[in-house]
Write a structure and sequence with these properties.
The complex is a heterodimer of chains A (305) and B (369). Chain A is mainly α. Chain A folds into two domains: 64 residues, no CATH class; 213 residues, MetI-like fold. Chain A is built from 13 helices and no strands. In chain A, helix 4 crosses helix 10 and helix 7 runs antiparallel to helix 10. The longest helix of chain B is centred in the first third of the chain and has 31 residues. Chain B has 369 residues and is mainly α. Chain B has a two-stranded antiparallel ribbon with strand order 1-2. Chain B has 15 helices and two strands. Chain B has two domains: 109 residues, no CATH class; 227 residues, MetI-like fold (Orthogonal Bundle), CATH 1.10.3720. The radius of gyration of chain B is 28 Å and the shape is flat. The chains are: A mainly alpha (305), B mainly alpha (369). The interface between A and B is large, with 102 and 105 residues.
Chain lengths: 305, 369
């Protein structure tokens, strides 16, 4: 064993416990906040498998202080013994789930398509519509973010009634697209302005049209931004409750409306509410775990110029 | 329209549009517009006078509008060639937003000045400023507006927590990815699910885990939605819980964009950490912070889902936001006219408030050296 030649100076040696203490405090705070963030999810997941006495006793850890049962999933007709049996609850649940999915995916796709084209146009060309220049047009789009949903809700209720769009998925998709479009334009403008124009210039010299250059050269480069915008739109539209509660009744009702309509009537059968809530949050939890990078990228767009 | 010289992307094009092509383009726009106008007039005749054409809904007008919009877009290329193709980038979105926002807003103004109860058979009746008078003496609306002020003020502690978390996440720590995903999680959850998960079950007075915790800490009979202040605080806390990640991530992005050299230079100069934060990090973070807070305010102004599902405004309107109040106004009394008037007043207030805020933000975020 070789002899240690270099020693920390006295100052550094004294510094170490302080630094160690600092680290401990940091980890303590981080873990504390992580518990605050994750405990409600854990609570929901475990409550799905709890019988009433377990809930009342406040048992928390499965297999240790309570035995998990299939109660929650059974109430949705999704437990192993019910999954192959005809079940009206499951039908209803799947219908709502499907509606939510269609509305969220459809509106996000539409918003990303419309929004990327607009953002590209605004970042590359100078427009003039009457008195409106590029900055005014951008502001016009972004200002839609300020518009509170209540202002639109009642006129749309009446309008949709006249247009026979009440309680349809198309109607919801159109409204959801409108609500997320400003966010998509914001993210995509940020994305496009980071792509040098020389790329299109080269493509145009080589004989592509401007739309050809946009579709074949720029879109693939801007894909990460589009994914980010798409996921953020997906989060917002999947969770949307206000419009869905007002504008849908039986056919196009989405999952959040179903969850909300159950809260009053269920009393203490917590497992079924927990299962339903779990179903409403699970898809986005999975997306968040897998695609966390893109969500953060999307939200950070515009924060850093 | 656009002059090629000043575009960010320089393209030289030479379009020779023949006179016949131009005529075709104009024909497309005006022809489809004529169809639209004719349909609108036929349908309004059908609706408002004794003529009967047998229309059940306004769908035909909607289709005519789609047809006109398509023709308008297509005709841009026919009329203006290359320039028209550029307009095509933003025209669909402009048409979409205008038809989905401007038109309903004008429509909303019409509804706002009328008495219209959807459940009553009388239909819509113009009543001038009666709604305004009713609003003036409606204590619940003013109460909701006052609550909104409280809810907006709650953003300050949210911001402080978010800033602290972002600073912690930006230090040298292990498992940073885990913490980032964990901290992001609340933002992913649907407010309706959150209002059950936390508001209805975890805060349940007898069995909820938070009630147990509070009882263990010494509050014998916890009631989270009994008194005004506590109920409002609970709503604020739940909303903060979902939206702190949002501000945290924006601030984290800002922190990561600060060049390391600045902090290193300060360290060499012997600045203590506290001073380093106040003199370097905080001023540099000001623009990002202001953006984050502005966006947060915009989202806060829409706050409704949690309130509707947890307290539905109670106790006695103490937790009502404007949105949830108008929602109940419609749900319980189907009072479309009055509700719309309140919403329009809210919109005007918001626009004034946000314009003021953005102007102030511009002044604050300008660096002072």
């Amino acid at each position: 064993m070789s002899k240690q030649i270099f020693f920390d100076s006295k100052n550094d040696a004294a510094f170490r416990p302080k630094k160690f203490l600092g680290k401990t405090v940091i980890y303590f705070i981080l873990i504390f906040w992580a518990i605050i963030c994750l405990f409600p999810i854990y609570w929901t997941v475990t409550t799905t498998f709890k019988a009433a006495p377990d809930v009342m006793k406040g048992n928390l850890i499965p297999w240790w202080d309570f035995r998990p049962k299939w109660l929650g999933l059974k109430s949705l007709g999704l437990s192993p013994d019910r999954i192959f049996v005809e079940s009206t609850v499951r039908e209803e649940f799947l219908k709502r789930f499907y509606n939510s999915m269609i509305a969220a995916l459809g509106s996000s796709t539409l918003a990303v398509l419309l929004g990327s084209c607009t953002a590209y146009g605004l970042s590359r060309f100078k427009y003039r519509f009457g008195f409106m220049r590029n900055s005014d047009i951008s502001f016009f789009f972004l200002s839609q973010l300020i518009l509170p949903p209540v202002v639109l809700a009642l006129p749309f209720l009446v309008l949709y009634k006249e247009l026979a769009l009440l309680d349809t998925r198309i109607g919801l998709i159109a409204l959801y697209t409108l609500t997320v479009l400003p966010i998509v334009i914001w993210i995509m403008k940020d994305q496009f302005s980071s792509i040098p124009t020389e790329l299109e210039e080269a493509a145009l010299v080589d004989g592509l049209s401007i739309w050809g250059a946009f579709l074949t050269i720029i879109m693939p480069i801007a894909l990460p931004g589009m994914v980010a915008a798409f996921i953020i739109s997906l989060v917002l539209t999947w969770n949307e409750y206000f419009f869905a509660a007002l504008l849908t009744s039986s056919y196009a009702k989405t999952l959040p409306v179903m969850v909300a309509s159950q809260t009053g009537s269920q009393g203490i059968s917590w497992w079924s509410m927990a299962a339903l809530s779990l179903a409403a949050i699970l898809p986005l939890i999975i997306i968040a775990i897998i695609l966390e990078r893109y969500i953060i990228k999307g939200m950070a767009a515009g924060a850093v110029k | 329209m656009s002059s090629t010289e000043t575009d960010y992307l320089h393209i030289v094009t030479q379009d020779k549009i023949s006179a016949r092509r131009r005529d075709l383009g104009r024909l497309m726009i005006w022809g489809s517009a004529t169809i639209l106008i004719v349909l609108i007039s036929i349908q309004s005749l059908d609706q408002f006078s004794s003529f009967e054409f047998g229309f059940k809904t306004w769908r035909p007008t909607l289709y005519a509008y789609f047809f006109w919009a398509t023709c308008l877009c297509w005709a841009q290329v026919i009329l203006y060639g290359e320039q028209g193709k550029r307009r095509l980038f933003i025209l669909p979105a402009v048409l979409f937003v205008v038809s989905m926002v401007i038109f309903p807003l004008i429509f909303a103004l019409g509804i706002a000045f009328s008495s219209w109860n959807l459940s009553s058979p009388d239909g819509r009746q113009f009543n001038g400023f009666d709604n305004a008078i009713e609003m003036w003496s409606d204590p619940f609306y003013w109460n909701a507006l006052k609550n909104m002020v409280w809810y907006i003020l709650a953003i300050i502690p949210e911001y402080i927590i978010a800033f602290c978390l972002a600073v912690l996440l930006n230090t040298q720590i292990r498992a940073r990815k885990f913490f980032r995903v964990a901290f992001l999680m609340p933002l992913m959850l649907s407010p309706v699910a959150v209002s059950w998960m936390i508001g209805k079950s975890m805060l349940e007075i007898r069995f909820g885990p938070i009630s147990r915790l509070v009882r263990a800490l010494g509050w014998d009979n916890p009631s989270f939605f009994g008194t005004d202040e506590i109920a409002r605080f609970m709503i604020m806390a739940m909303d903060a819980w979902t939206f702190i990640p949002f501000m945290m991530i924006m601030i984290l992005a800002g922190l990561q964009a600060i060049p390391k050299e600045l902090n290193e230079a300060a360290e060499v100069d012997g600045a203590p950490p506290w001073k380093k934060f106040w003199e370097i990090t905080f001023p540099l973070m000001l623009p990002v912070s202001i953006t984050a807070i502005l966006i947060r305010i915009i989202f806060k102004l829409k706050l409704a889902d949690i309130i509707i599902n947890v307290t539905s405004g109670g106790p006695g309107g103490a937790t009502d936001s404007v949105t949830s109040f108008i929602y109940r106004e419609y749900r319980d009394r189907s009072n479309v006219g009055y509700g719309t008037f309140l919403a329009i007043v809210y919109l005007v207030l918001i626009v004034i408030f946000m314009t003021f805020l953005i102007k102030m933000a511009e002044r604050w975020s300008r660096p002072r050296y």
